[in-house]
Amino acid sequence: MAVITIKEVSEKYCVTQDALRYYERAGMIPPVTRTAGGIRDYREEDLAWVELALCMRSAGLSVEAISEYVRLSRLGDGTIKDRLALLQGQREVLLERQRQIAGTLDRLNYKISRYEDALKTGILKWKKEDD
Amino acid sequence: MAVITIKEVSEKYCVTQDALRYYERAGMIPPVTRTAGGIRDYREEDLAWVELALCMRSAGLSVEAISEYVRLSRLGDGTIKDRLALLQGQREVLLERQRQIAGTLDRLNYKISRYEDALKTGILKWKKEDD
DNA sequence: GCTTGACTTGGAGTTGACTCCAACTATTAT
DNA sequence: ATAATAGTTGGAGTCAACTCCAAGTCAAGC
Q: Which fold has domain A6-130?
């Protein structure tokens, strides 16, 4: 019957089995298909949800936001507008985060170049404000 | 003597007084200048550290990494190489995070456009894999 | 049919980053 | 000098997102 177990999925996506169970409990993915005995059997569709959840989490979106999206999806076509709004909101979250990171990277790069100079030229003069 | 209090700093940077005290306790900024009575008096230099810490935190760098940088800085010029390495490491962290976010944004944008189409054209056919 | 190993659940514990609190001290206004 | 206000500390509490555990169930090999 070729059951795809939680172990296989955890290895495939480099995530713990506990995390996979937690994602399901938290509603971040819909209930996974089970065997007659109650054991999780990740079907194509289940894997797609896992992948989506991991992708969103890897960017730092909250479990709550992802769960809400899943909840709306499970309610059917009537929630398409809501889902669109949610996705747009989360896009804004990520865009903002991207801006923060870009700004910090600028600052980091500036400092790094100052440090590199200091090492190249010998530490001739290091001021407090260079820290 | 124009003391700059924690209250003023918290308002200036939109951060709680508790967070400012926590940052200091955690070593994310060096000990702040104090008045004779033991009250924090944020001098120019202290503010620069606060600003740096907030910038790094806003990008999601860990309190631990920032504290380590501050610790090395306080040890003097001998730690410049270490500090450079630390900053380069943190730059990698941010670059990786940026990549993750970019990837998730691509996916999010794709989904958003599918939802927008669905709303524009009426929900003619919505498949499971469009969720 | 029995052992062994993987899977199940509910719930407790952990980690990082704050946030809140109580008891106390310093400063300012009257 | 005293009351009100603002600041201080150490430590406990909170929240998100896991992570770990115990006690039990299921499945595969012998």
A: Multidrug-efflux Transporter Regulator; Chain: A; Domain 2 (1.10.1660)
Question: Is strand D less than 7 A from the beta carbon of A19?
Answer: yes
Burial of A40 (0-12, 13-18, 19+ CB in 10 A): buried
Q: CA A25 → C1' D24, Å?
A: 19
Strand partners for B34: B40
Q: Which fold has domain B6-123?
A: Multidrug-efflux Transporter Regulator; Chain: A; Domain 2 (1.10.1660)
Q: What is the pLDDT of residues A60-74, one digit of tens each?
A: 999 999 999 999 999
Question: Residue A62, CB, less than 7 Å from strand D?
Answer: yes
| Protein-contacted positions of strand D (CB under 7 Å) | 6-10, 16-21, 25-27
pLDDT-derived band at B42, boundaries 50, 70, 90: very high
Q: What is chain B's Cα-based Rg?
A: 22
